[in-house]
């Protein structure tokens, strides 16, 4: 099993440029996630207990101000997280997650 593959780091980097206060929390999330070997939702949830699942998507709390939504795919050789959306909690509240 290979480590979790995260697509698309440029989205995260662009967000940090716009919102520098998110850097520490996003860097921490990246380090933990990209060095993990999750093979199931329960394994992910043991690392990020406040993560929520909506269909094939996972919602992470980033710091105290942001939410990160990724498409989650558990594969036989690798788990993939595809970044779909990143923003403030108040913008998240207005999203229709199922349409992402």
TrEMBL record:
This is Type II toxin-antitoxin system HigB family toxin. GO terms for cellular component: toxin-antitoxin complex. One of its GO terms (molecular function) is RNA binding. Pfam families: HigB_toxin (PF09907).
């Amino acid at each position: 099993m290979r480590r979790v593959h995260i697509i698309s780091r440029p989205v995260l980097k662009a967000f940090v440029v716009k919102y520098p206060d998110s850097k520490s929390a996003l860097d921490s999330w990246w380090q933990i996630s990209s060095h993990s070997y999750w093979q199931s939702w329960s394994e992910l949830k043991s690392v990020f207990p406040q993560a929520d699942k909506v269909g094939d998507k996972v919602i992470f709390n980033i710091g105290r101000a942001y939410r990160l939504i990724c498409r989650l795919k558990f594969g036989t050789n690798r788990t993939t997280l595809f970044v779909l959306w990143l923003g403030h909690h108040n913008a998240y509240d207005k999203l229709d997650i199922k349409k992402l």
